[in-house]
Amino acid sequence: MSLRDVLGIEHPIILGPFGGLSSVELVAAVSDAGGLGSYGLYGYTADRIRDTITQLRAATERPFAVNLWLPVGDEVTPDQVDLTAASAVAEPLFTELGVLVPRPPERFLPSSDEQLQAVLDAAPAVLSVVYGVPSADLVTAAHERGIRITGTVTTVAEARAMDAAGVDAIVASGAEAAGHRVSFLAPAEQSLIGTFALVPQVVDAVSAPVVAAGGIADRRGVAAAFALGAAGVQVGTAFLRTRQSAASEAHRQAIADAGDTTTVLTRAMSGRLSRGIPNRAMRTIEDGGAIAPFPAQNWLTGQFRAEAGKRGLGDYQSLWAGQSAALATRADAAEVFAELVAGLPV
Question: Which residues contact 126 (CB under 8 A, 6 or more apart)?
Fold first, then answer.
């Protein structure tokens, strides 16, 4: 069965789900064009998840996906972590923005079980998951409600585990991809396989349709992905650059100005390995030598990142971008989608 049939879409093009940077407008634009719009629900409460899916349904009649992070067991709670050192390192950034270093909250993240139940109750067309393999109970519950499940992998071993779980499609995310490296069987630093090496190996190892992600921003990347055996592509940075995304103007401009800029992998902003454009915040934290574990670090930096976003100060934000950032030259989602469609096999 083709990816089109599995997901109920016209074109096998998926919008990368942006945790914290998703917008209803961009999801609807991609879905309405015949692809699969995806909305990242990282950190959302159950009520916010239900409200967001209601908004998405009102914006498009086409299928869309929502994305959740599965717990992998290394997440810390406020009572398990001492933020003194990490806060001291980040204090200059808070000071420069005129923001006080806050006290830790009662919890860093909502309950994963509550999030998953909210998605099951709302029954979107597709649930995509990262950082782990969905349980048999989750797969069964989703399928009983008519929800397709996709899972993201960064190695062949992860792909085999994902396939065994019975997911409907597997996203093979190469090391070129923007944002978090969603490895779960081995440390992310040991799972940095490029898209060209990863995709054909995953295709050979699994029975589910494979979606190529990482470094794809135009028709050439799409054609290359299909030549490697992929059944579809997932694209992030090229869409993040567009006016329809929820990225700040400073973030979009940083992608537009990427040119010869080299994206880097860092744990500075969230405590987990991620790819983005280097800036003052990233360098200050890395030079300070104290990074709290996830999600404590993500919560801590989020306190000044929010203020920076309001003020359009890119040097204090998480400027997630993939290695194809210089190819993200289009400012409108429809133009990006048309360019990608031009690379699909006839």
Answer: 7, 36, 38, 63, 64, 65, 66, 147, 148, 149, 150, 168
For 61-73, give one letter per residue: b (16+ CB within 10 A) or e: ebbbbbbbbbeee
Q: What is the DSSP letter of 166?
A: T
Strand-pairing partners, residue 284, are none
Alpha helices in the chain (DSSP H): 3-7, 24-32, 46-59, 84-97, 112-122, 136-144, 156-164, 195-205, 219-227, 237-240, 249-256, 280-288, 296-311, 333-341
Please provide the distance, in angstroms rounded to a whole number, between the alpha carbons at the two ends of the chain: 17
Q: What is the pLDDT along the chain (346 residues), one digit of tens a residue?
A: 799 999 999 999 999 999 889 999 999 999 999 999 999 999 999 999 999 999 999 999 999 999 999 999 999 999 999 999 999 999 999 999 999 988 899 999 999 999 999 999 999 999 999 999 999 999 999 999 999 999 999 999 999 999 999 999 999 999 999 999 999 999 999 999 999 999 999 999 999 999 999 999 999 999 999 999 999 999 999 999 999 999 999 999 999 999 888 899 999 999 999 999 999 999 999 999 999 999 999 999 999 999 999 999 999 999 999 999 999 999 999 999 999 999 999 8
